[in-house]
């Protein structure tokens, strides 16, 4: 599979550290230079940066080319919306990990939004990527309690601890079924 990242890459690191016969990472692609790319390079995994362009359609086409022909694509902290050209090629075998219990708090500020709403339980969701923003079919979820005194950073860090385990669990359960992924958890 190919992993898409935009930032720290701590989820990617856990994915790399737990590779076994059930999955292998063949490439890591990012929209900018980031720690995730450095982590991949340090692990000897091929990397490519496809810098975000004004023309989103063209950028999506370049992203498709960079990703190549894997069985699956995992968006692990990739902070860009995947467009039509990308989904035409990879829908059904692209999954995303999101730091909230979808369908609550989609988007780029899920942890902040959940705190602002005052929820007492939030968590982690792994889902298929479709044309909406975090709207694809849910594969797996785990709850995380909000604690008194939590701020965005402390809550996000506890969610990430759960996310790192959950994404590996999902990847280990994933099977290639034609052009799609079948994941039975
Ligand atoms: C994770 O919490 C992931 O769910 C989130 O970015 C973080 C990446 O952490 N993704 C989104 O919010 C996508 N909307 P990392 O860079 O340390 O792996």
TrEMBL record:
Alphabetized InterPro entries for the sequence: Formyl_transf_N (IPR002376), Formyl_transf_N_sf (IPR036477), GART (IPR004607), GART_AS (IPR001555)
Active site: residue positions: 98
Any single GO BP term: 'de novo' IMP biosynthetic process
Keywords attached to this entry: Purine biosynthesis, Transferase
Species for this entry: Corynebacterium phoceense
Ranges of residues in domain Formyl transferase N-terminal: 2-171
Molecular function GO terms recorded: phosphoribosylglycinamide formyltransferase activity
PROSITE patterns: GART
CDD domains per record: FMT_core_GART
Catalytic activity line of the entry: N(1)-(5-phospho-beta-D-ribosyl)glycinamide + (6R)-10-formyltetrahydrofolate = N(2)-formyl-N(1)-(5-phospho-beta-D-ribosyl)glycinamide + (6S)-5,6,7,8-tetrahydrofolate + H(+)
Annotated metabolic or biological route of this protein: Purine metabolism; IMP biosynthesis via de novo pathway; N(2)-formyl-N(1)-(5-phospho-D-ribosyl)glycinamide from N(1)-(5-phospho-D-ribosyl)glycinamide (10-formyl THF route): step 1/1
EC identifiers of the protein: 2.1.2.2
Protein name as it appears in the record: Phosphoribosylglycinamide formyltransferase
Source lineage: Bacteria, Bacillati, Actinomycetota, Actinomycetes, Mycobacteriales
Domain of life: Bacteria
Site, as annotated: Raises pKa of active site His: 134
One of the record's GO cellular component terms: cytosol
Binding site for (6R)-10-formyltetrahydrofolate: 56, 79-82, 96
Physiological role: Catalyzes the transfer of a formyl group from 10-formyltetrahydrofolate to 5-phospho-ribosyl-glycinamide (GAR), producing 5-phospho-ribosyl-N-formylglycinamide (FGAR) and tetrahydrofolate.
Family from the record: Belongs to the GART family.
Xref: NCBIfam families: PurN
């Amino acid at each position: 599979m190919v992993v898409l990242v935009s930032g720290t890459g701590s989820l990617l690191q856990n994915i790399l550290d737990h590779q076994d016969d059930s999955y292998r990472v063949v490439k890591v692609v990012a929209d900018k230079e980031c720690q995730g790319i450095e982590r991949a390079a340090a692990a000897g995994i091929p990397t490519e940066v496809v810098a975000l362009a004004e023309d989103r359609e063209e950028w999506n086409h370049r992203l498709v080319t960079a990703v190549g022909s894997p069985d699956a694509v995992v968006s692990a902290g990739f902070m860009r919306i995947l467009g039509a050209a990308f989904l035409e090629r990879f829908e059904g075998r692209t999954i995303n990990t999101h730091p909230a219990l979808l369908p609550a708090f989609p988007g780029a500020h899920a942890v902040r939004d959940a705190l602002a709403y005052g929820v007492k339980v939030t968590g982690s969701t792994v889902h298929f990527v479709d044309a909406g923003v975090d709207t694809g079919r849910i594969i797996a979820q785990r709850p995380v309690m909000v604690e008194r005194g939590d701020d965005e950073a402390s809550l996000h860090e506890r969610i990430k601890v759960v996310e790192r385990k959950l994404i590996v669990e999902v990847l280990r359960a994933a099977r290639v079924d034609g052009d799609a992924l079948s994941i039975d958890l």
